[in-house]
């Protein structure tokens, strides 16, 4: 996807929770590309406008898998604290 398309897709998939502005999105894309986590290439759109399209690199997928595993461990721990399976009886 190109940057604007990516921002719109994230907004749509998050139910409007994520609304990224260019000042946030493009610096993040540039850092991810610099770090080898995504790769970009230029293409001409049907209107003749040049757009930079991005995709996740192999290194980026490996990093994403590691981050998701860490997130799942963290969120499971928070859920065990915030939503215990059974509440203990009230002791006066």
Describe the protein's architecture and organization.
It is a single chain. The chain is an alpha+beta fold and 92 residues long. The protein has a single domain (3-82), classed as Arc Repressor Mutant, subunit A, CATH 1.10.10. Helices cover 53% and strands 15% of the residues. It contains 3 helices and 2 strands, in the order ααββα. It has helices at residues 3-13, 22-34, 58-82, and strands at residues 38-44, 50-56. It has a two-stranded antiparallel ribbon. Strand 1 (38-44) and strand 2 (50-56) form a beta hairpin. The mean pLDDT is 92.
List keywords for this structure.
92 residues, alpha+beta, Arc Repressor Mutant, subunit A, two-stranded antiparallel sheet, 3 helices, 2 strands, 53% helix
Annotation, overall tally of beta strands:
2
Q: How much helix is in the residues?
A: 40-55%
For the record, what is the CATH homologous superfamily label? Winged helix-like DNA-binding domain superfamily/Winged helix DNA-binding domain
Name the strands of the widest sheet in spatial order. 1-2
In sequence order, what are the helices and strands, one letter per element?
Answer: HHEEH
**CATH architecture name:** Orthogonal Bundle
Oligomer: single chain
Low-confidence stretches: none
Structural domain count: 1
Gyration radius, rounded: 20 Å
Give the biggest sheet: 2 strands, antiparallel
GO molecular function: DNA binding
Protein name: DNA-binding protein YwzG
Domain Transcription regulator PadR N-terminal: 1-65
Organism: Geodia barretti (Barrett's horny sponge)
């Amino acid at each position: 996807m190109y940057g604007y398309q990516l921002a719109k897709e994230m907004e749509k998939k998050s139910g409007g929770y994520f609304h990224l502005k260019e000042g946030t999105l493009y610096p993040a894309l540039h850092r991810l590309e610099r770090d080898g986590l995504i790769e970009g290439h230029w293409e001409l759109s049907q209107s003749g406008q040049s757009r930079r399209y991005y995709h996740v690199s192999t290194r980026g997928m490996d990093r994403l898998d590691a981050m998701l595993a860490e997130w799942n461990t963290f969120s499971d721990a928070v859920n065990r604290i915030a939503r215990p399976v059974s509440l203990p009886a009230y002791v006066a």
